[in-house]
Amino acid sequence: MPLNCLEQVIKASTSCPNSSVQEEEIMATLLGSESSCTGGKRRVCNGSIVTKFTASKITGQGFSRGTELPGGLLQERDKRAKWYGIPTLLQRLYESSHPNSDLSNAHSFLKVLSSQLSVEAMSFVTEDRKTAQESTFPNTYTFDLFGGVHLLVEILMRPTLTVQKKNNNTVNDDLVKDCLSVLYNCCICTEGVTKSLAARDDFVLFLFTLMTNKKTFLQTATLIEDILGVKKEMIHLEGIPNLSGLVQSFDQQQLANFCRILSVTISEPDVGNDDKHTLLAKNAQQKRNASPSRAEVNQVTLLNIPGFIERLCKLATRKVSEATGANFLQELEEWYTWLDNALVLDALMQMATEEADQSSTESSDESSLATGPLRHRLPQSMKIVHEIMYKVEVLYVLCVLLMGRQRNQVHKMLAEFRLIPGLNNLFDKLIWRKYTTSNHVVHDQNENCDCSPEISFKIQFLRLLQSFSDHHENKYLLLNSQELNELSAISMKANIPEVEALVNTDRSLVCDGKKGLLTRLLTVMKREPPDSSFRFWQARAVESFLRGATSYADQMFLLKRGLLEHILFCIIDSGCTSRDVLQSYFDLLGELMKFNIDAFKRFNKYVNTPKKFQTFLTQINSSLVDSNMLVRCIVLSLDRFENLTEDVKVVEVLSECCLLSYMAKVENRLSFLFRLINIINVQTLTQENVSCLNTSLVVLMLARRKAKLPFYLNALRDKEYADKYPGFLLNNFHNLLRFWQRHYLNKDKDSTCLENSSCIPFSYWKETVSVLLGSDRTSLCAIASYIDEPFMDLDRDLLED
């Protein structure tokens, strides 16, 4: 036990009511009763506590734990300090837990301690938690203060230090379970315990070895999850002894639980909302850390475990028994208000399973989770919530792997093991029942979420669909065979070739049934309340299906199902005020309408009054960061349509569509350009707003194609002088473009996305930026030519590390 903790012990003995009155008496006890009357001064005996304590701080010898204090002193001060006998019990536990001791006696003392600490811990997972937090010296704090946590770690790790014989000296399963439970209780109740355990790498790795025992698995997994959550450095999964064998030994329930631990080891640490979120800081960090991160290394380690992904797919798509009755949903929510800590629910389910195992042969088959006579006596909602909670963790792990460097390898395996058809079969009965209410704040991928299991499950499902579809040819697995045929028919009718990804889709791996997963998603999307945060994730998932090289057939498939009218209703008529939802709908609308003359015709049919159109423009202008992708779509589409003057249909829509007519006016395009450049700078660029820079570039690239780039640059200069702030737009834009060069010329994926989404070769992007950054002040296409010398502020050191 650390010496500073011993100081706390001595202080704690005086920290009680009327301590000022009794302090002299207590210190007299600590100092000892022997004294010399010579000179009337008290003499401290050589064996006193304070002397030994002071000497131990200097020499490092002496007291090592609080329980080494005299038993008489501990008992005398126990009631006054409100220790409730914990130090005395710890003394007995310590004395009875030596390597050659009868550990059955030690276990009996631990059980008494456990019962005292469990009451306190339970208050942290129920509505009574406030009482425990307000306690001055809670039981778990006292337990840790007197070295209880360190003692239990010693007991647990003893088998690694000595040869164990099968007798009463052995650390048996029940003793291990109680040690782990007490440690977990201390972690959740007393600040600092979890961090101190996390600092011991040997103990963390040792805990994984305990997971081979099914009887201690649950307690071990729960403790590891807490410890890894606060550990400063992410562990190396390859450092776990025989990880592959460990994972393959798990039954399906254990594997599902293990995913809770894995989620901490494969996710990049959340950098929060500080400057590290800026692209400038991220680029600098990537330059410093060129090698793969620990999370990326851990992802590779998992993928190398035979059968790992296949078993996760089975877990994700496994069916569970459905509850019936009108009160089911209410019952489910009532259970959740109490079960806000997974330990409670897992413990109840484990008790049921263990009791069932006594009367039947234990099975590790994936269906074992839903078997056992006692389990049928548990509330049906508990069984479903239990399965849902595990599916959330499994989907999260799959989602993280899908976004990693081994994305193509993961995609191939998910397709092979029929993850998407399996989820499609669960959609109506489990994933998306009629019960859908969600008004919570939208979270990032790595951000903690306090949503109910049902809501978390739906969001994680939508995140998975988004990651699965995004810029990948496997997106067509979200359809069934009939829907794939429909896409082929659309292409044939339009006299355009089918996209290669559609032709290459393995039809044995697509969805079954009357509807594919994408169509089912569209159906529930239209039923969501206006401000439901599910709309955000639903729109993101559908948008990812459209992202990449624009496919007319994909767009028409969704247009036929009324998606455009639904989006416009949400933006114009629903009263939706959520910026997150509106942004996702603007982005989706942009992908749906891009280069599609039929979509613009449908738009004009829905937005058929000046009032509606003005409402639409107001929504766009209220936040260009949110709507700029739609602005880019309109500008690009207008440019293409203006080059198709021989197409009667295109000419007709160009003349009638209010949106195209609005963007055709140069003053409106310039207005967007001014604001897009003005709302960002290099220091504030993030992954979210860098699209504003690219949209402004699109406007200027199209102007350059028509030899109008000097006109636009001169308009920027005129705007500066009109606002009496010469140089503020052009200097800022110059610095932004310099950053653009460094950011995109080294990122293949980003450059491909820019090319696919705009249908402008990336070589033209690079060429245009180089022209704009030209140093020749006589060039009419160089930004520097339009900044008067006194106002030139091109910060050459801005991007230096």
UniProtKB/TrEMBL annotation:
- GO CC annotation terms, alphabetical: Cul4A-RING E3 ubiquitin ligase complex
Instruction: Give a GO molecular function annotation for the protein.
Output: phosphatase binding
Which InterPro entries does this entry report, sorted A to Z? TRPC4AP (IPR022162)
Q: Which Pfam families match?
A: DUF3689
Q: Superkingdom of this entry's organism?
A: Eukaryota
One GO biological process from the UniProt record?
A: ubiquitin-dependent protein catabolic process
Q: Which residues form a coiled coil?
A: none
Q: Per its record, how is this protein called by name?
A: Transient receptor potential cation channel, subfamily C, member 4 associated protein a
Its source organism is Gasterosteus aculeatus aculeatus (three-spined stickleback)
